[in-house]
Amino acid sequence: MTSAFDWEALSRRLEAARAALAALDRPDPAAQERLLAERAAALAAAAAPVERPADGVEVLAFRCGGERYAFDSAWVARALPLLPLTLLPGVPSHVAGIAMWEGELLAVVDLRVLLALPLSELAEPGALIVLRGEDNRFAVLADAIDGTRRFAHADMGHSLPMLADPDASYLLGVAPDRTALLDARRLLADPTLVVNADH
Hints:
By secondary structure, this protein is an alpha+beta fold. The chain is built from 4 helices and 10 strands, in the order H-H-E-E-E-E-E-H-E-E-E-E-E-H.
């Protein structure tokens, strides 16, 4: 014999469910404030700028004459494959020639000659790095481009056998992996690297 169904219990459960649903429709100022505060915090966290290390410099690393070098990316306009060069008579030996880029004639500097790198380490250049300053722009030859990196200032020593006299060179520092950071600002300000109608 089966027991009778408890309709009263079912009615109580249905009434409790109806009351709970009705409570969801009633505004709860405290709950709304909590929800708005949580959403505001989430939006603020998403909009916050990405933290970057305060100590360090982003560089474009490249190879030249068997060594690794880099320029501060702030001075690099573009890295490109080697363009056809036109030789110029009467220019310093470290000026490899001129190249046409974006409708502009660029002097092309051979760092291997400028830095007096051993000739036995010379490789065929395959790229150009266009440096730009406020009043000057030129390109330097590179064997290959290694890409961008970040160097910590604290890690930049000053010992590189290839550049015996750092005070008289374009050297800013040397990373632990022996990548030499070159002073693009000084290069751009050097009048011997400017090729124009007067030079």
